[in-house]
Amino acid sequence: MKTKLLLLCVAGLLVALTRAQAATHYVDAASTNPVPPYADWPTAAAAIQDAVDAALAGDEIVVTNGVYQTGARAVYGMSNRVAVTKAVTVRSVNGPEVTRIIGSGPTGPNAVRCVYLTNAATLAGFTLTNGVTQTTKATEEGNPASNAGGGVWCESQSAVVTNCILAGNTAFKGAGAYSGTLNHCTLTGNSAIPTIYASIAGGAFGSALNNCTLTGNRADLGGGAYSSALTNCTLIGNLATDVGAERLRAPCSTASSRATWRPILRRRPTPAAAGPATARCTTALSSAIQRQVQEAEPMGAPCSTAHSRATWRQTLRGRPPPTAAGPSSARCPTVRSWGIGQTGVEARLKAR
């Protein structure tokens, strides 16, 4: 009896040790002989989803060059081209330029997002494009998982997206990315579509972005990012149509990030810039740089900067100009010096 028990224990230990070495699964869009568990290139899966289904937590899925634009897997009622529902790493061999995951539209019950990413999962080296959500209704009107994250919808910030390009995706909120931690990614040309409510975050919503570039994204609120933390990021030409050309929207935070503004506004003054056209924040947490459109103040809470330089443009109508440190710029050497933003007072405020 003792011998049999000992053998069972040894067998269990061997299984555990074998499983401790994570398996690798292979994907090739041109594969003609896919055989589970897709353990080598000759038997590679033709669809990324098949390899995800065959994997266990901790495994790696290696994807070679190709366009992956067929199939769909629903999570929370929303279809995804790839649903990474396990804590695995999905990475491309040669990067986002040659490895693409393509969603499909138009908005409606048949729309397909590019990728769903669960907790502790990683996606590396893909282009995610043409992802569309099933609805652009606000959360109050519909399923929150079906109106956000056209490019990628992450379960939390423990899901990691690295070295990816998120381009040309649409949603009501977070058209490029919803939640997640994004490292060395480019978010470009993503659009948050409004309904009777203002759309939010053309680029990313509720995300942590590190060393990312956000260009040409648009939304009603937060053209580049909303409710996100940005570190060492570059923001160029993002547009928010509802409350000015905001690149970020409180409570976003920036750190060592550079932003270039593109003044495309509807009868509103151009946004402020630091330098002539950029803002540099060198602290660990300097809050969202945003344009003030309601108050005749050069700075306003809850924005904060540190060791940052701002150049103010005087656009007040019949009101005294805001104060500034120096003739045209403000130097904030402290950890809590209040936000850089342009004062834009509309005509209706003249009576105040």
Descriptive tags:
single chain, 352 residues, mainly beta, ten-stranded mixed sheet, nine-stranded mixed sheet
What does it look like?
With 352 residues, this protein is mainly beta. The protein has one domain. The protein contains two helices and 34 strands. The strands form seven sheets. Strands 1-2-6-9-12-16-20-24-27-30 form a ten-stranded mixed sheet, covered by helices on one side. Strand 1 (24-27), helix 2 (48-54) and strand 2 (60-63) form a beta-alpha-beta unit. The model is unreliable at 13-19 and 261-352 (pLDDT under 50).
Low-confidence stretches: 13-19, 261-352
The domain tally reads 1
Structural class: mainly beta
> If helices are DSSP runs of H or I spanning 4 or more residues, what is the number of helices?
2
Strand order of the largest sheet: 1-2-6-9-12-16-20-24-27-30
Radius of gyration using CA atoms only = 24 Å
Tell me the total number of β-strands. 34
Instruction: Report the major sheet.
Output: 10 strands, mixed
Quaternary state, please? single chain
Short description:
Helices cover 7% and strands 30% of the residues. The protein is mainly beta. It has one domain (74-351).
How are the SSEs placed, and which strands pair?
Layout: H1 2-20, E1 24-27, H2 48-54, E2 60-63, E3 66-68, E4 73-75, E5 78-84, E6 89-92, E7 99-102, E8 113-117, E9 122-124, E10 127-129, E11 152-154, E12 160-162, E13 165-167, E14 170-171, E15 177-178, E16 181-183, E17 186-188, E18 191-192, E19 204-205, E20 208-210, E21 213-215, E22 218-219, E23 225-226, E24 229-231, E25 234-236, E26 239-240, E27 253-255, E28 258-260, E29 278-280, E30 286-287, E31 304-305, E32 308-311, E33 329-332, E34 337-338
